[in-house]
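Fold this complex.
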Amino acid sequence: DIQMTQSPSTLSASVGDRVTITCRASQSISSWLAWYQQKPGKAPKLLIYKASSLESGVPSRFSGSGSGTEFTLTISSLQPDDFATYYCQQYNSYSTFGPGTKVDIK
Amino acid sequence: QVTLKESGPVLVKPTETLTLTCTVSGFSLSNARMGVSWIRQPPGKALEWLAHIFSNDEKSYSTSLKSRLTISKDTSKSQVVLTMTNMDPVDTATYYCARSYRTLGILKFDPWGQGTLVTVSS
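Structure:
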């Protein structure tokens, strides 16, 4: 099975900060990676698919990069609505989610 | 507008079998690019993919839970059913279904249902 890790597990930041979250796969998954945002009590929302493709309607301050085993999600200028937990997901072999990164207010 | 809604028991006893239904609207389960996935999330913990099914009846299961899961669909009713046998308190979680859109190697889980909290307790 492909295992996913994320770092950091928690990130404290301020509005306007540039934020980067890293996701690593236990083996190469090419570009078969997605990122989701989840707010408390809500279902996850798709942000990025195929590692770097922005889902329709998602603000352009979100971007994804990487391939193989290492990926990043970047928020160029953190907005109040962005405080949430972010999950990466591989779909190269079945599907696996990462453990999540909580972005909270500094 | 695409929507999905999960339904099923809120409380099950240990060793019982859980049956959850996902009713979809706004897309057809017979569409070649469409499927439905089940994902769960224990309280305060991470997401865990469980299974998915596609229009051609292709099914995949989490390796760790494969022996306990069965996924099926009724296209005429726009429903996907997940059964999980031998429930245990560690299976207490919010269970989500999500549309799985697949094309050219891309797989998107979007949108998701609101989720249903299932508690396993005697």
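Residues 13 and 79 of chain A are 10 Å apart (CA to CA).
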